[in-house]
Automatic annotation (TrEMBL), chain A:
This is Acyl carrier protein. Carrier of the growing fatty acid chain in fatty acid biosynthesis. Belongs to the acyl carrier protein (ACP) family. Residues 2-80 form the Carrier domain. The modification O-(pantetheine 4'-phosphoryl)serine is found at S40. It comes from the Bacteria. The gene is acpP. SUPFAM superfamilies: ACP-like. It comes from Arthrobacter livingstonensis. Pathway: Lipid metabolism; fatty acid biosynthesis. NCBIfam families: PRK00982.1-1, PRK00982.1-4.
From TrEMBL, chain B:
Involved in the type II fatty acid elongation cycle. Catalyzes the elongation of a wide range of acyl-ACP by the addition of two carbons from malonyl-ACP to an acyl acceptor. Can efficiently catalyze the conversion of palmitoleoyl-ACP (cis-hexadec-9-enoyl-ACP) to cis-vaccenoyl-ACP (cis-octadec-11-enoyl-ACP), an essential step in the thermal regulation of fatty acid composition. Signal peptide: none annotated. Pathway: Lipid metabolism; fatty acid biosynthesis. Gene3D superfamilies: 3.40.47.10. This is 3-oxoacyl-[acyl-carrier-protein] synthase 2. Its EC number is 2.3.1.179.
Length: 81, 419
C-alpha cells in the first residue's frame, strides 16, 4: 500500500516519462488537460502505467472523472484499500 | 510553360553517416555500412542472415526522449532527415499553406506493429499503447514531418516498395508544377531491421547470405553477387519553385528537371527481363525534363546486388540511352549503404543531386569481377569527375509490384568545390 505522497511521486514519474514534464510540476491541484496539457492519448498511457505501478484497476469510464492530479491520487488510494 | 523546380535543401541519416556531409564524404571514399548484428533475436530465431546496414547515428542524438517515444523508428529517421534538409534550405519565413510534404516508406511502422502484437500476446489488450495506431500507420513519417514543419498544403505518402522514395520526388515535382504548393519536403524513410522482415526477405532469397563477410556482401554488378543487404534510414530534399528560391536568394543545388513513374504489369516481384517498364520510365523522365539521352552523364543505379535484378536495369539503360550508355558513368551506392527499401530512392536522390552539384560521382565498392552481361562504366576506386557545362544525372528506383520511378537532375551552375 502506497501513501498519498508515494502515489503522487509515482504519478509524477509516469507523467515525466510520457510527456517530459518536470516531476515537480505535477501537483495535486493541477488539471491534467488545462494545466499539464496532457491529451487523451497520453492520459490513457499514464492510466495504464499507473495501473501497473500501483496494482489497481482504473476503469475507462472513471478516467473522465480524473480531472486533477489530486483526483487520480485519491482514486488510486481508494482502489488500493 | 511549367514552373521550374529546384532543390534547395538536403538531409539524410544513413548507414554511412548521420547527416548529409558525412554520408557524402563516405560515399566518395567508399565505405561499407553493413555489419554483423549482435541482437539477441538473430540467434533466438536462427535467422539465415546475420547482418544488416544500420544507421550510424541513433535518432536520439537529434530527437528528445519524449518525441522519440511517440514515433516509430521509421518516423524518427524521417524527422531527423527533414529537419536537416529544412535547416539546410535556409527557409525562415514561408506561407505554410503553400508548403507540402511527400514522404515515402516501403513498409511503415513495422517495429511498432510487431511490438504491439508481442505486447498483446504477452500482457493483454490493456497494455497495447494508445499511440500504436498513429505510430504504425505508413503515413506516419509524412504526418510527423508535416506537423514538425507546419506544412499544410497536404502530406502525401507514396508506397511503392523500393521505388517509394523516388516516387516521392515525382509527387513533389507535380505539386509544385501544378501550383498546389511552392515548397515540398520530399523524402523517404524505412526502419525494417526487425526479425520478421529479415526472415521474410530471406525467405524469398532476396538477401545476401554472406554472413562471414558483411562488408563485402553488397556487390552490385559483381558475378558473385547473391542478394541485397538490408539497410535503414531516411533521405529528404527541399523542392522549391524556382521563382520562390530566387526571390529569397537561396543556394540552389540543381534543378529537379523531370520525373516519371511506370508499372511493369509483368510479375509481382520479378523484374521484366527485357526491362520494358524501366525503359519507358527512363524515356518518360527524359521527356519530362525536355532532355535528350546525350545530356545524361551519370546514373545512380537501383542496382541492389541481387542476381536477377541488376541486369534488367542495364538492358533498360541500353534501350533508353542507346549507344550513349557507354559515355555514362554509373554509381551503385547500395554497395555502401545497403538497401534502404522505401528510403533508398530518397537517399540516392540526395547523392545524385550532390554528384551534379560537386561534379563528382560516388564510388561503387566490392566490384571485383564485373558481370560480363552488364558492360556498364561503373565508378570504382575513386570518385569520377563529371564534365563541365550543363549536365544531367538520373536516379533509378524499382520496387516489388513492378514499380519503376526515375528522377532527372540538371545542373544549374558550374562545379561547386567540396568545402
Amino acid at each position: 500500500m502506497a501513501s498519498n505522497e508515494e502515489i503522487l511521486a509515482g504519478l509524477a514519474e509516469i507523467v515525466n516519462e510520457e510527456t517530459g514534464l518536470a516531476p515537480e510540476a505535477v501537483e495535486l491541484e493541477k488539471s491534467f488537460t488545462d494545466d499539464l496539457d496532457i491529451d487523451s492519448i497520453s492520459m490513457m498511457t499514464i492510466v495504464v502505467n499507473a495501473e501497473e505501478k500501483f496494482d489497481v484497476k482504473i476503469p475507462d469510464e472513471e478516467v473522465k472523472n480524473l480531472k486533477t492530479v489530486g483526483d487520480a491520487v485519491s482514486f488510486i488510494a481508494g482502489a488500493q484499500a | 510553360m511549367a514552373r521550374k523546380v529546384v532543390i534547395t535543401g538536403l538531409g539524410a541519416t544513413t548507414p554511412i553517416g548521420g547527416d548529409v556531409p558525412t554520408t557524402w564524404r563516405n560515399a566518395l571514399k567508399g565505405v561499407s555500412g553493413a555489419h554483423t548484428l549482435t541482437d539477441e533475436w538473430v540467434e533466438k530465431y536462427d535467422l539465415p542472415v546475420h547482418f544488416a546496414a544500420r544507421v550510424t547515428n541513433p535518432a536520439s542524438e537529434v530527437l528528445s526522449r519524449v518525441e522519440a517515444k511517440r514515433m516509430d523508428p521509421s518516423t524518427q529517421f524521417a524527422v531527423v532527415a527533414a529537419r536537416e534538409a529544412w535547416k539546410d534550405s535556409g527557409i525562415e519565413e514561408i506561407d505554410h499553406d503553400r508548403l507540402a510534404v511527400a514522404f515515402a516508406t516501403g513498409i511503415g511502422g513495422v517495429w511498432t506493429l510487431l511490438d504491439a502484437w508481442d505486447t498483446l500476446r504477452e500482457k493483454g489488450p490493456r497494455r497495447v499503447l494508445p499511440m500504436t495506431v498513429p505510430m504504425l500507420m505508413p503515413n506516419g513519417p509524412a504526418a510527423a514531418v508535416s506537423l514538425d514543419l507546419g506544412a499544410r498544403a497536404g502530406a502525401h505518402t507514396p508506397v511503392s516498395a523500393c521505388a517509394s522514395g523516388t516516387e516521392a520526388m515525382h509527387i513533389g515535382l507535380e505539386l509544385i508544377r501544378s501550383g498546389k504548393a511552392d515548397v515540398v519536403m520530399a523524402g523517404g524513410a524505412e526502419a525494417a531491421i526487425h526479425p520478421l522482415p529479415m526472415a521474410a526477405f530471406a525467405a524469398m532469397q532476396a538477401l545476401s547470405k554472406r554472413n562471414d563477410d558483411p562488408e563485402h556482401a553488397s556487390r552490385p554488378y559483381d558475378v558473385n553477387r547473391d542478394g541485397f543487404v538490408m539497410g535503414e534510414g531516411a533521405g529528404a530534399l527541399v523542392l522549391e519553385a524556382e521563382e520562390h528560391a530566387l526571390a529569397r536568394g537561396a543556394r540552389i543545388y540543381g534543378e529537379l528537371a523531370g520525373t516519371s513513374v511506370t508499372a511493369d504489369a509483368y510479375h509481382i516481384t520479378a523484374p521484366d527481363p527485357q526491362g520494358l517498364g524501366a525503359t519507358r520510365a527512363l524515356k518518360a523522365a527524359l521527356f519530362d525534363a525536355r532532355a535528350q539521352a546525350e545530356d545524361v552523364v551519370h546514373v545512380n543505379a537501383h542496382a541492389t546486388s541481387t542476381p536477377v535484378g541488376d541486369r534488367p536495369e542495364y538492358v533498360a539503360l541500353r534501350a533508353a540511352l542507346g549507344d550513349h550508355v557507354a559515355n555514362v558513368c554509373v554509381s551503385a551506392t547500395k554497395s555502401q549503404t545497403g538497401h534502404l527499401l522505401g528510403a533508398s530512392g530518397a537517399v540516392e536522390s540526395v547523392l545524385t543531386v550532390l554528384a551534379v552539384y560537386h561534379r563528382l560521382a560516388p564510388v561503387t565498392i566490392n566490384l571485383e569481377n564485373q558481370d560480363p552481361e552488364i558492360p556498364l562504366d561503373v565508378v570504382t576506386g575513386t570518385p569520377r569527375e563529371l564534365p563541365g557545362g550543363q549536365i544531367m544525372a538520373l536516379n533509378n528506383s524499382f520496387g516489388f509490384g513492378g514499380h519503376n520511378a526515375v528522377v532527372a537532375v540538371r545542373s544549374t551552375g558550374p562545379k561547386v568545390e567540396l568545402s
